[in-house]
Amino acid sequence: MGVSSTEDESVAGKPRKPPGGGSPAVSVAQILTGADTPVGAGFLVPGGAVVTCAHVVVNAGCGPGDVLTLRFPQAPGTPRATGTVLPGPWRAPGDEDLAVIQLTGTPPSVPELLVGLAHGAEGRPVWSFGFPRSTFDSGHEGTARAGGRLRVGGGDHWLLQLHEANTVARGFSGAPVVDTATGLVIGMVTALPGADRNQRGLNIAYATPGETLRQAWPALKPKDVCPYQDFRAFTREHARWFHGRDRAKEQVLGHLASRRRGLLLQGPSGSGKSSLVQAGVLPALPPGWRSVTVRAEASLTAALERAGLADAGPGADRGAAPGSGPVSGPARGRSVLAAVERFLARSAGTEHLLLVVDQFEELLTSPAPGHGTPPTADEEKAVLRELTEVVESCAPVTVLLVMRNDFYPRLADRAPRLLDAVKPVVDMPPTLTSGELRDIITKPAADARLRFDAELPQTILTEVMSGGRYDTAPDEVRVTVLPLLEKTLTLLWEHRSDNLLTYEAYDRVGRFGGSLAQWQDGVLSQLDDRQKAVARRVLALLVRHDRTGESLDTRRPRSVAALRTLACGPAADEATVDHVLAVLARERIIVVRSSDESGGAPSPVAELVHDLLIDKWPQLRRWSATYAEFDAWLDHALERAERWRGTRNPGDLLQGTDLTLGQRWRHEFGLPVPADEFLRRSERHRRRRRVQAAAALSAVPVFAVLAATGVIDIGVPGTGRAHDPAASASAYPGTESGARALLLKAGAGTDADLVESLKPTHADYQAVFQPEFAARAERFYRTAAPLPSGAWAKPEQTMLRMWSATTDQIRTGTGPAVDAFPGGYARLKDAFKPGLTVYYWKYTEPGEPYGMSFDGLIHVNGHWALFPKPWRASAS
User: Fold this and answer.
1) What one-character DSSP code corresponds to residue 713?
2) Are the C-beta atoms of residues 35 and 62 closer than 8 Å to each other?
3) Looking at the structure, do residues 461 and 423 belong to the same domain, yes or no?
4) Residues of 250-282 as b/e, b for ≥16 C-beta within 10 angstroms?
5) Which domain holds residue 577?
6) Is the pTM of the predicted complex or chain greater than 0.70?
7) How far apart are CA 429 and CA 110, in angstroms?
8) Any bridge partners for residue 769, and if so which?
9) Is 158 inside any structural domain?
10) Who contacts 718 (Cβ-Cβ below 8 Å, separation ≥6)?
11) How does pLDDT run across 615-657, given as a tens digit for each residue?
12) Does residue 674 lie within any of the structural domains?
């Protein structure tokens, strides 16, 4: 658990306990002669070796290559061991006087001691344990105070001088010198000079410093491996350092044990979903199970093929692949299911396959129809169908989808059949207990042989608990503290003192709350003004803005080639962009990975290291907001370009505001080649249209005369002659995505005409309600119930939560959304006509369940109409 209680502190010169617990004396060995006579001490170090003095080994009648015996008098049962004196680290008694004995077996009850550096320990109390003949056979303690290092003989031979060493006597040769403040061995007792004829020097001893020990035997150096994972997800290789998530792991493994065909694991960003699967679940799969893991991306089938599912992509040939064995039905040929069956057929000993699709939300980030943005890609639809096919098959396979929970409504909208196939959904536990957090903080350090300053783990735990507890129980915090905690611990490790994690380092990195800001500021301080401007653009362009209101902004991977164009503007400076990308990647703000989605040579793709950066970095949110309009335009332009290439319809070229914005963005940002070429083609088309328009100018006087005499109605706004009150509402499709787009617009309060257009007409009342109630409702809404005006949502309410139920479900009281509706609808169940869909919605702050509530939106007679709280009309 690490050092976090007073019993482990240095009190009255007592040393800290070694990592295995107990007194360090347990780790001290007696070096024995062949006649079982002790001749000195040694101490157990990592790797199953004992370090001692060379002169002790010589006194035992041995030398390099010889086997000798030793015992651990303070360990339970006084275990004995044998070992071989290694020739490599041997330093003769007249030189540095060092020997390393490699044991044939390490007693299980004996912990290893860690070797640190003597530098910086001057003046601190030290502790030792040896076997002088004048005391008990099982040894006794000695104390002293560390002095400075002394050069011996004018060469590179150094000794550590110990003061106040009266209790360190003969028989301590080879004993460890332990810094009582850190619990680390900073030297090995080598010599006692003794008093001169005037009895001076009685309290002086000398030790070989830890620097010399580690130089002679490099295995004593602490492993330069960080047990914390920064913003990166834990993988199977990091399973030894993955702690504190047993509740979630057992929950997922329990579902897999029943061999469910499909499973959806969801949780908020930063809750550790990927780490749980990679480092917790996969290493614990039952015998006979194999796993294939892919990350959802633009071409999931290509990713599956790279992961080992050959021919997973759709193709014209749906026949069986040669040598693949008999397959039938939809599993034939090139499909995900066919690839799964071929994989199982050639994998001897595999009883069940777990197919993991991580970051599944990436498949759902293309906007849905009705938002003024591209429709769902055909490939996305095909992949969702293919995954549904696998889940519904009889093959011995389980599909595990790992997804952010704020994408659940989008999955329900786009792939309801797949969602039904993977229910019930497994939710990540939303909180962590203090015990789980303590394991996350201390257990990786213990495994990596790291030590904490006294009470530092408790200090970190206290700050995490106070910073992450909002609406949780007193002993719990939100699980979303994990990324920031891992970043803090990683920075603490990077600023460690040897293998000690210190308060000084913790303060230096900004502690738990400020570590992220200090890290970000430190990265940007490495750049000059020009490079900082490019960095801001790079980071902003790696944010995907969710324009549907269904979820928070997310990371957006972009190719390095695109960033070179977009981030430096028209004045191309690719060298600056590459330098910025290198710095951001080195400091782990971004990651750059290869992508061969096209099937060709891999091309580098950059993305933010974690969504937490968007949530916790206010500057990044401000930078990305300035690029949101450009981002939307670019997506729209590329979609139009793709459509135009297929249709060659001039109506698909950019026109009006789209064209004007494109010219602005080209001068401000620079554009990717496909977008720039499409913009230029659109400009040429507009010039041709203007030439044609100029040729028709001679007809203008005649047109004006006809209009003045009333022969032609030019539809002057405000006259009512050409104004349709429902025109604005009818511009939104009568689908769930159309309703969502309309409500986002109305919530912002920027279109008063839109709200006005939602007023029902007489025909609308007749189409929605039964005849008797229709007349009453019309009178009520026209006289006593005006529609809400202004912005429907507060500025901070950026999320839209929406439910829908058919009038048939309202009448029968069935359907999953009915319970969410206001209770007044139950009183009005017989007043509705069948076959309609009613929407109820809320504007909320991100992550909050409550907000501004509205209801009664219905698509009728080709447009949207609003009937808020219709049950109130029954009392009118």
Assistant:
1) -
2) no
3) no
4) ebbeebbeeebbbbbbbbbbbbbbbbbbbbbbb
5) 526-626
6) no
7) 38
8) 832
9) yes
10) none
11) 778 888 888 877 777 877 887 888 888 888 888 888 888 888 7
12) yes
